[in-house]
Amino acid sequence: MDQAVRAFESSLQLEPFNIFTRKILVESYSPLGQKAKAQTEFDLLLQMTPVARHQDLRRWLMPALARICMETTKHTKNTKGNGRPRAVLAQ
């Protein structure tokens, strides 16, 4: 997965306004837990997309963004007050 992400990132150097590549990156950053990168790409997509299509874009990318939020929440719940991971018992 990391290799594919690097390839898509490289392709943006040739075509920085390729919205399909940016959509793929938002979806690819999600399982890698790279929330900031996914958010940055999503924000750029919104800037490149006509306002009338924003809702369609959000609906299409919502599953990827939701996974990122769930991973962030899961990490926050599994840390002590000092930010270090705490033991989580297997169920």
Structural features, described:
This protein has one domain: Serine Threonine Protein Phosphatase 5, Tetratricopeptide repeat (Alpha Horseshoe), CATH 1.25.40. It is 71% helix and 0% strand. The chain contains four helices and no strands. Helix 1 (2-14) runs antiparallel to helix 2 and helix 2 packs antiparallel against helix 3 (35-48). The longest helix is centred in the last third of the chain and has 24 residues, at 54-77. The model is unreliable at 82-91 (pLDDT under 50).
Furnish the topology, listing elements before pairings.
Layout: H1 2-14, H2 19-32, H3 35-48, H4 54-77
State the gist of this model.
The protein has four helices and no strands. With 91 residues, it is mainly alpha-helical.
List keywords for this structure.
single chain, mainly alpha, Serine Threonine Protein Phosphatase 5, Tetratricopeptide repeat, 91 residues
How would you state the average pLDDT, rounded? 77
Major sheet size, sense and barrel closure? none
- The CATH class assignment is Mainly Alpha
What's the order of the H and E elements? HHHH
The CATH topology: Serine Threonine Protein Phosphatase 5, Tetratricopeptide repeat
Distance between the termini: 28 Å
**Tally of distinct domains:** 1
- Helix and strand content put the structural class at mainly alpha
Number of helices: 4
What helical percentage do the residues reach?
A: over 70%
Radius of gyration: 16 Å
CATH architecture: Alpha Horseshoe
- Low-confidence parts, pLDDT < 50 over ≥5 residues? 82-91
Broad shape: flat
